[in-house]
Specification:
Strand content: 5-15%
CATH superfamily: NAD(P)-binding Rossmann-like Domain
Low-confidence stretches: none
Mean pLDDT: 94
Radius of gyration: 20 Å
Oligomer: single chain
Helix content: 40-55%
């Protein structure tokens, strides 16, 4: 039996990935920060799902979870075939008004936490990589790792960093015949869109960016409501795990031409001007 470790499975993409894997006969070990965050999955999939408790920022807790994972693998006569680094948060605001601690928190979860999980469990992938289907690390990035937007500098910076880390790691692990794949979702319709803070509570509305932030938030929510169902990510990951020749990157977004391809083809200054026009970011909003 092939077992997959998925971080951050309580909601959204992580939960959907878990269900897709289980429905395709994988055993899943899912990480959550609190025991109660895994109640749904434990009740529905009591035989195919196990939980480990850790915050990806807590290296000691991750190392402690490794003992439990080894016990689960031994009990099930299984092996770890993949680590799926899904845990993440999204922080933002105008850089001019953001404390440096916001950037540090963003990177602690989305980047340094991902590295900790990868390093701590990597030896399990290496020692069991002896089957026809090769073991893999799958990192959940974002189209924001290639396309930057205003007011989400902490988030998009963390995803840009993940791009470079993924490429470096993939090339290093060729020596162990372990692949590293990046999945780059655009808007995905999950519970997160029901938890978007009230725009009237935004602490930056009284700055010169107030009107632009309102426009950005409105467009952001509209994109989320038009996003793909989360199972499109889970189903893609199943396919990645079922082949030895996956692509290095999978961009999965609605309106791929507009949301991803065109901004990559156009000169940066053109994209700057288009963004400024949409969000009213010209000086004095009169140009």
């Amino acid at each position: 039996m092939r077992t997959v470790l998925v971080t951050g499975v309580s909601t959204g993409i992580g939960k959907s990935i878990t269900e897709s894997l289980i429905q395709n006969k994988f055993h899943v070990i899912g990480s959550v920060r609190k025991e109660e965050d895994a109640i749904y999955l434990k009740k529905k999939y009591s035989k195919q799902f196990d939980t480990v408790i850790f915050d990806v920022r807590d290296e000691k807790a991750i190392k402690n979870a490794k003992d439990k994972i080894n016990s689960i693998l031994e009990k099930n006569n299984s092996y770890l075939c993949s680590i799926i680094n899904n845990s993440g948060i999204a922080l933002g605001g105008p850089v001019q008004y953001l404390d440096l601690e916001i950037f540090k928190k963003q990177f602690d979860v989305n980047f340094f936490g991902l590295i900790s999980v990868t390093k701590i469990f990597l030896d399990l992938l290496i020692k069991s990589n002896e089957y026809p289907l090769k073991n893999k690390i799958i990192n959940i990035g974002s189209i924001s790792g290639k396309r930057s937007y205003p007011f989400v500098a902490p988030y998009t910076s963390s995803k840009f960093a993940l791009e470079g880390f993924t490429d470096s790691l993939r090339r290093e692990l060729m020596i162990h015949d372990i692949d590293v794949v990046l999945v780059q979702p655009g808007p995905i319709k999950t519970e997160i869109w029901n938890k978007v803070p009230d725009i009237e509570q935004n602490p930056f509305l009284n700055t010169e960016y107030g009107a632009s932030i309102r426009k950005f938030a409105s467009n952001y929510i509209k994109m989320g409501n038009k996003g793909f169902r989360p199972d499109i990510i889970g189903n893609r990951i199943v396919k990645i795990l079922q082949t030895n020749k996956p692509k290095t990157r999978y961009v999965i977004t609605p309106n791929k031409l507009i949301n991803y391809l065109i901004p990559g083809f156009l000169p940066d200054r053109w994209v700057d001007r288009i963004t400024a026009k949409i969000l009213g970011l010209h000086k004095n909003n009169d140009k």
